[in-house]
Design a protein that fits this description.
Layout (H helix, E strand, L loop, with lengths): L20 H23 L3 H4 L7 E4 L4 H6 L6 H8 L12 E9 L6 E10 L2 E7 L5 H9 L14 H10 L30
Antiparallel strand pairs: 1-2, 2-3, 3-4
Length: 199
């Protein structure tokens, strides 16, 4: 016999949905939370903004310095120009009378450097050359080291006390001769071949 208790609500049937107002409150709270998260994260720095990947220095082409350009003289042969400047970066088949020396240096966080020297030939003899403002060798080396952070350079001269301490630590003592090894027992081995046997 089934007993019906009036204090319990009847179970919903298959086609009905229960009317639960707290369910809508939960959905609204979740939506509010998600929208708050998106507005907070849009103001926070991301990991990609905090960490930048390391990019290597890119050095391309021929380095031509002011000293090399000063050594060029009209009337030099192609071989002499090649000895001073090296092989050209660009030598066109269509412009056989022109050699281009192009240099590019790129470093992360700095403006790229680009320089060019063009040599013009007439019947295999240097006629003239045109060049950008070229650095000296010292200026070029300094530009490669610019922007790098170096630690404090240690003193390169030792004091008398340091030299004495070094000598004390590395004193050469007379080598100790190793004791003579004990004589090993005499062992007699049979010959590998029996005398008189034919091969």
């Amino acid at each position: 016999m089934l007993h019906h208790t009036p204090d319990r609500a009847p179970l919903p049937t298959l086609g009905q949905r229960p009317n639960r107002p707290w369910r809508w409150v939960g959905v609204l709270a979740a939506l509010t939370f998600l929208s708050a998260c998106s507005s907070v994260t849009s103001r926070m720095p991301s990991v990609t903004n905090l960490v930048t990947p390391y990019k290597i220095d890119i050095l391309q082409g021929n380095v031509v310095t002011r000293e090399q350009a000063a050594a060029l003289q009209p009337g030099m042969t192609r071989a002499q120009v090649r000895d001073i400047l090296g092989s050209p970066l660009l030598a066109s088949v269509f412009h056989a009378d022109r050699w281009d020396y192009v240099f590019t240096f790129r470093r992360q966080g700095q403006e790229p450097q680009q320089r060019r020297l063009t040599a013009f030939f007439k019947s295999d003899v240097l006629e003239r050359f045109e060049a950008d403002a070229l650095p000296t060798e010292a200026e070029f080396v300094a530009s490669l080291d610019a922007g790098r952070k170096f630690g404090k350079v240690p003193p390169l001269q030792a004091t008398e006390a340091q030299l004495k301490a070094f000598d004390d630590r590395n004193k050469v003592t007379a080598p100790v001769e190793p004791a003579a090894p004990a004589a090993s027992p005499a062992t007699s081995y049979p010959p590998l071949e029996t005398p008189g046997t034919a091969r």
